[in-house]
Amino acid sequence: MKKEYDLSKLKSRKNPYAKLLKKQVTMRLSAHVIEYFKKLAEETGIPYQNLIDFYLQECVESQRRPSIKWVS
After folding, report:
1. CA distances from 54 to 8, 37, 47, 70 (A)
2. Band of the pLDDT at 3, cuts 50, 70, 90?
3. Predicted confidence band at 18 (pLDDT cuts at 50, 70, 90)?
4. Taking the domains of the chain in order of start, what are their residue ranges?
5. pLDDT grade, residue 69 (50/70/90)?
6. If we measure between CA atoms, which residue out of 61, 57, 37 comes closest to residue 49?
7. What is the DSSP letter of 25?
8. Helices (H), 1-72
9. Alpha-carbon dihedral of residues 27, 28, 33, 39, nearest 10 degrees?
10. 31 phi and psi, to 5 degrees?
């Protein structure tokens, strides 16, 4: 193994897995929803944004649909 490598000769290329990475989005969530996931994050040690993502992934995999009840 060399002590030093000349990285200036390397060719850059696009990350082949970039399409599989997460996308940043802006969402408006209720304060009580955020607090719920933040509390859960403290208990589990998992960041609350990851917990929200995990939950939404579960919904997608199980094809769960929200039950919407309109109040008159």
Report:
1. 40, 11, 11, 27
2. confident
3. confident
4. 29-64
5. confident
6. 37
7. -
8. 31-44, 48-61
9. 60
10. -60, -40
Cα gap 55→49, rounded to integer Å: 10
Enter the tokens of residue 28.
């408006």
Inter-helix orientation angle 48-61/31-44, to 10°: 100
DSSP secondary-structure letter at 8? G
Nearest-angstrom CA–CA distance, 70 and 46: 33
Length of the chain in terms of residues written: 72
Cα separation of 65 and 42, whole Å?
28
Amino acid at 19: K
